[in-house]
Specification:
Structural class: mainly alpha
Largest sheet: 2 strands, antiparallel
Strand content: under 5%
Number of strands: 2
Shape: globular
Distance between the termini: 16 Å
């Protein structure tokens, strides 16, 4: 990444952070964000229960990255996710995942401390 592009990105982030910090300090904004994140997660779980492969594809981007407790590796991309982490096509409801319960949920606060570029150090 060029130093100029990196500097522009740092300036953009620096200008955005105060806004994000204000939003995070507002209980209303934070609870709304947490509710939206939880609803998204629950829609994914419901996709598994309903055996709705289309829903699972829609909730995972083409370049999605992640893992599952049983994957043993990073899953890379939507296609790998659909092949590795879901269920076989045609699996009827009532088999595989048939329900879920979220026993704990928390949305951590994200903060940016500083930007440095290895290319800018000499």
């Amino acid at each position: 990444m060029s130093i100029r592009l990196f500097t522009v990105l740092c300036v953009v982030v620096a200008l955005a952070v105060p806004r994000a910090t204000l939003a995070q300090n507002s209980a209303t904004d934070r609870s709304a964000d947490a509710a939206a994140i939880r609803a998204h997660i629950e829609s994914i779980f419901q996709g598994f229960v309903e055996k709705d492969r289309k829903k699972l594809e829609e909730t995972h981007g083409a370049n999605w990255r992640g893992f599952t407790p049983w994957s043993g590796r990073v899953i890379r991309g939507r296609a790998d996710y659909m092949n590795s982490a879901t269920f076989p096509e045609g699996l009827p409801k009532g088999q595989g995942m048939i329900g879920y319960r979220i026993s704990d949920f928390d949305v951590p606060r994200l903060m940016l401390k500083r930007c440095t570029s290895p290319a800018s150090r000499r």
